[in-house]
Each structure stands twice: as C-alpha cells, then as structure tokens.
Amino acid sequence: MPEPVVPGETDLSFLDERDSIPRSHLSAFDMLSEATTALTARPARTLLTALGTILGVAALVATLGLAKTAGNQIVSRFDELEATSVVVRPPRNQPGSNPNSEQQQVSAIPWDAGDRLQRLNGVVAAGTKSDVAVGEALARSIPIIDPLGQSEFQIPVIAVSPGLFDAVRTQLQTGRVFDDGHNARGDNVAVLGPGAARRLNVNQVDTSPAIFLGENTLAVIGIIADVSREPELLNAIIVPDGYARERFALERPAEVQVEVAIGAAELIGSQASIALSPNDPSLVRVSLPPSPRRVRSSVQSDVNALFLVLGGVSLLVGAIGIANVTLVSVLERTGEIGLRRALGATRMHVARQFLFESAALGALAGLLGTSLGILTVVAVSANRSWTPILDAWLPFAAPVLGAAIGLLAGTYPAWKASATEPIAALRSGA
Amino acid sequence: MTGSVPVVDLEGVTRVFEGTPPVEALKATDLVINRGDYLAIVGPSGSGKSTMLHLLGLLDSPTAGTYRLDGIDTSDLSEKERAGVRSARIGFVFQSFHLLGHRSNVENVMLAEIYRPGSRQGRRERAIAALEQVGLGHRLDAFPTTLSGGERQRVAVARALVGEPSLLLADEPTGNLDSHTSAQILDLFDHLHAAGLTLAVITHDDDVSERAARRVRIRDGVVTAEAVSDA
Ligand SMILES: Nc1ncnc2c1ncn2[C@@H]1O[C@H](COP(=O)(O)OP(=O)(O)OP(=O)(O)O)[C@@H](O)[C@H]1O
Ligand SMILES: [Mg+2]
C-alpha cells in the first residue's frame, strides 16, 4: 500500500531548531493533583480557612431553602375558604354624623344585590342575608302544646335570597332550598338548619311538614346538613327575603355574602360597591379576605433580606479569610515558589496553581456549606413538621459560588506569588 | 545534539544590578563548559558566584553578552521557552535542599517533571530510578523531614537528575553538611561525572573544588581560570 501523502508534510526543517526548544507546560491533571496535595497536606488548616465561606454558603442555602419551605407552608395553609369570601355590608356609622339620621340608618343594599353581583365576572354565587326580628314569636312544630315537654322555642329566623345557599356552600341533608319563585312570591316556606330541625323534631320533608312561627305557618321544604360559612344558619329557620318583607317588615338586606373565584376577591371588592350602589359607592362597605400573597411576601421578604445580608456578610468575611490565609501561605511557600520556577514553572503556572488552590478551597467550602445549609433546612422542617423544599439549582449553584469566591479571594495572592522573583525566593531557604 | 556544541557558551556576559551606584556583579565573561565537564566556581563572598549560577540556570538574564545553552541562544527565548529549557536541560541543587516537607521523597523527585509536557507516563518509575541512583532506593516513601542532611541533599540531587539534564548546577551543595556527609555528596558527584554528566558547582570549600576537573575563580565579578591541582 502506498504511503498516503499528507499535504504540508513537505519541508519544514527550517522550523526544526525552534521546535526542538522545549516549552514549559503544566497539565490540567498535574495542576489538579498539585492543588489536592497542597489542600490535603494540612486538612485542619484547610478546613479553618474555608470556615467563613462554609458558614456563608450554609447561611445562604438555609435562608433560600427555609424561605421556600416556609413559603410553601403558607401556601398550603392558605385558607381557600377565606380567600374566596367577600362580604358587603352597610358602612359603620361614621363618628360625627347623626346616628339617628334617616340616611345612615337605611342600608343601601338593594334586594336584588345577589343577582346584581352574580353578573360580575369572578363571582361564583351571591346572596343576601338578614336577621329577622320576630319579636316574641316562638317556633313550634305542632299546633298543640305538649304538656309533657317543651315544644316552643326561641329560634333565630334568618331571611336570605336563594343565591345565598350557594354562596355559603350549603350541603343539604334532605329536601331542597327555595328558589327565586318562592322569594318573589313571598311564599311561606322554610329551610331548617340541622340544629333547628332537631329542636323542632323535623327529620323529613317529604310531606312538607308545617312549623309555626307565632301565628304564621311555614312549610319546611329542606333541611341543611352543613354550611361552610355563616355557621349561625345551622341553628336558624331560614326563610325567603320576600316572606320576611311581607310578614316581618324587613326593610333592607343586612349583608350580601359573595363567593368569588380564587384570586378574584380584590377585583370583585372594587366592583361590588359600584354594582350595588352606583350613585354613592361609599354607602356600602366591602370586606375582603386578607390577601395571602401579600402576607406571605411581606413575611418572606423581611426574613429573607435579613438572612441574605447575613449570608452575604459571612461570605465576604469568608472570602477575606481565604485571601488572607492564601496570602500567608504564599509568603510561607516562597521557597517552594522559587523551586517551582527553577523546575520550569512560568509565572503563569505559579499564579494558576495558587488561583486553582483557592478556587478548589472555595468550591470545597461551597460543597460543605451547601450540605450544612440543606441539613439546617431539613432539621428545621422536621422540627416544625414542614415539607422541606429546595430549588433544584441551589445545591449546584452554591459550590460554583464558593469556587467563584475562592477565585476572587485568590487573585491577589496568586498575583503576588507569580511576582515572586525566583532568585530571591530560592535565597529564602526551604 | 552534536558533540562539538558546548553545553555552556558565554560570550561577554555581564550582569549589572540597577541602583545607585549600579553593582556590576559579573563583568564581561567568556566561559565554555563542554559536555562531561566538572567545573568548580570558587570565590569569596559577594564575588558574583551566585549571580553566575543564576545566569547559567536561566533564572536571570545577562544585561550584556550572549549565552548559548546546548547551542540555543537564550537571549531570544520567550518566558515559556526559558522555563521549558530550564525544566528539560538544567538540574538545580541548592544549599538548603528545597524539598517539600509534606511530600514523600519519591513525590519530591516527581515534582521535577510536572512542568515537562507529556511526562506523566512513567514519572514515578523515573523518580524511583533516580533515587536508586543516589542510593536512596530504600527510602522512597519516607518524608524528607525524617532524613539526615546528607540524605536530603541526595534526594535533591535525584530530583535534579530526573530526565537526564544537560547541566547540573549546584550552589554550595555541601554548605549545610558536615565533612563526612559532604564527602558522600562529592563522591556522588564524582560518580555522576564519571557517568558523563556535566556539572558546575559553586563552592568556597577547597575540599569541594579540589574534586572538580576544572576550576574558575571569581573575584569582584571577574572570572579567571585556575590551574587544577592534582587530585
Ligand atoms: N538583586 C541584587 N541587586 C543588587 N545587587 C545585587 C543583587 N544580587 C546580588 N547583588 C550584588 O552582586 C554581588 C554578587 O552577589 P552574589 O550573590 O553573586 O555573591 P556570591 O559570590 O554568591 O556570594 P556568597 O558566597 O556570599 O553567596 C554582591 O555584591 C551583591 O551584593
Ligand atoms: Mg551565593
């Protein structure tokens, strides 16, 4: 087989003399093993040098990890029920204005408040709710007084619009709730809370059993099992607004309960007063749930800022520590630097070796600090029975940060080492 | 390399240290060291011996004149090349040994090659061979701190021998040793010289200089050749 002709492999002999001059070279492997040897020669000193950086990185990792963990904790505890509840009431009497004046006393909430709010985007359900003043009227379930036991009770009566049942997330035990028709006609129907039903001894509604409220007769069409909000409904006789207006002269709804979609509370809050009282929105007062996001971010940013500053400060101290000890070791190792130069190291090689040593030290500190930080997060979480959560990038970023700090801290000592004159260095003794 | 090219060829080499007044540590010097020479450089303190050795070892550059090492004009080398030539062609032995205390003997000797490209293969074997050559084959993994002065200097010589340098430079190699161990080191030098190594040894000790085949004397930076006494 003929030898392949390599282009350019002709006459390069004029380069030979130059090529025969050896060039100094430090392989990456040798640099790595030199740094490892230097760092492991005095493990205790290495560890102490790295201590500041270890603590700094640990503080940062623990802060970020705990913030994340605690943040998640707040989110998971985040009260979905509370966050989706908006209540509209008349304003409190303002001091200075006459509490007896007609305007202040009359609620501005219209009877169709539930329907009006229902039309807003983000409202899940809305309904009015008012306590009904029934005077001396007692409730009973049978027309004849039972001489053997108490059969007449003082049971609160609450007038609602049909939308309220959804707004408080009513679960029915039996029967049904009243509708717009009942409300509009002012029908004498009632839905009983479980407490009221028990006292009135009503446990089925198939036959629409009658109950009596003073002189008035009401047909029970449903019994509630539970509500998520407004627990006083559980012990009440619930009647349609229309009925209460007719029989008990209820003038205005006392409040509107609104169930909103998650995150819509603030928007609905700003729109509800206009929807209900377009002429003077100040005549209604909207209660919003505390924004959990805001609570969390304020807590978190306070804690975070403090610990991040602490972490930053200890990193700075750590960097100064590394710089200081590396500088001392450059002075201690003057003889070694001279020797290395005599053995063929260039200034660059010397600088690189010290730089690499301090970077490796920083990376090691970062690694240890990360472990310590994660351990802290886990320990605190275990103590509070939280679920420890850590950003996935953090364990990787922290050693890199450590290495960067080491690199930065090593810059001046490395430059100092490379500037050491070999002759002077060799004269300095071993 | 052809045998006719001298290892060291100094032509009018001068070293002046800046300052007020400037110090002319080495005045225009011509010196040739041939392959296989064993040269002793003697002179009183402050005469310029170390200056000469630093120039020969490429740790310092002359302010005037030319220095050819193995025929290579060292004046137009880059730093990388000077360091490379130093690493490949020159072995140093110092009065104070310059061994690293945290490394075993063999590791200290291996250090000689880390600035030589492509030298990782067989580095340990060559270091062991060098230690055996100086008679320390049985103390490979001991640490220099556990050795006597003479043994330490032999480790340093082994380090200088790895990779067969063209020139071994020693600055007061027996300065820290008693006469008995000095004699051991000088025996070792004789042995290496007999094996063909080129040596230049700085000393103000007559016992040392008498072993050398050639002797030059420096006084106030002026180099003069001396007749060699019959040894
Ligand atoms: N960096 C320097 N700057 C100024 N003068 C220097 C420098 N280095 C050496 N000298 C001077 O050069 C002269 C020769 O110094 P050198 O170190 O070569 O002497 P030596 O012969 O090795 O002496 P010793 O036997 O004491 O080691 C001395 O006068 C010394 O002061
Ligand atoms: Mg000297």
Low-confidence stretches of chain A: 1-16, 95-105
Give the overall average pLDDT of chain A. 83
Q: Which regions of chain B are unreliable across 5 or more consecutive residues at pLDDT < 50?
A: none
Domain module tally of chain B:
1
> Distance N terminus to C terminus of chain B?
31 Å
Would you tell me which CATH topology of chain B applies? Rossmann fold
Describe the structure using short key phrases.
heterodimer, A: 430 residues, alpha+beta, eleven-stranded mixed beta sheet, disordered N terminus, B: 231 residues, alpha/beta, Rossmann fold, six-stranded mixed beta sheet, four-stranded antiparallel beta sheet, globular, binds adenosine-5'-triphosphate, binds magnesium ion
What would you note in describing this structure?
The complex is a heterodimer of chains A (430) and B (231). By secondary structure, chain A is an alpha+beta fold. Chain A folds into three domains: 27-77 and 294-428, no CATH class; 84-129 and 255-288; 133-249, no CATH class. Chain A is 52% helix and 13% strand. Chain A has 16 helices and eleven strands. Chain A has helices at residues 16-19, 28-41, 43-77, 80-83, 102-105, 113-118, 163-167, 180-185, 194-199, 241-248, 265-276, 292-332, 334-342, 347-384, 394-418, 422-427, and strands at residues 85-89, 123-132, 139-140, 157-160, 171-175, 189-192, 210-213, 216-226, 237-240, 255-260, 285-287. In chain A, strands 1, 2, 3, 4, 5, 6, 7, 8, 9, 10 and 11 form an eleven-stranded mixed β-sheet that branches. In chain A, helix 12 packs parallel to helix 15. The longest helix of chain B is centred in the C-terminal third of the chain and has 16 residues, at 179-194. Chain B has 231 residues and is of the alpha/beta class. In chain B, helix 5 runs parallel beside helix 6. Chain B contains seven helices and ten strands. Chain B has a single domain (8-225), classed as P-loop containing nucleotide triphosphate hydrolases (Rossmann fold), CATH 3.40.50. In chain B, the strands form two sheets. A six-stranded mixed β-sheet of chain B has the order 6-7-8-3-9-10. Chain B has a four-stranded antiparallel β-sheet with strand order 2-1-4-5, covered by helices on one side. Chain B has helices at residues 49-56, 79-89, 105-110, 123-133, 149-161, 179-194, 206-211; strands at 8-17, 23-33, 38-42, 64-69, 72-73, 90-93, 167-171, 199-202, 214-219, 222-226. Chain B is globular, with a radius of gyration of 17 Å. Chain B starts with 7 loop residues before the first strand and ends in a 5-residue tail after the last strand. Chains A and B meet through helix 2, helix 13 and helix 16 of A and helix 2 of B. The complex binds adenosine-5'-triphosphate and magnesium ion. The site of adenosine-5'-triphosphate has 12 residues of chain B, from strand 2 and helix 1.
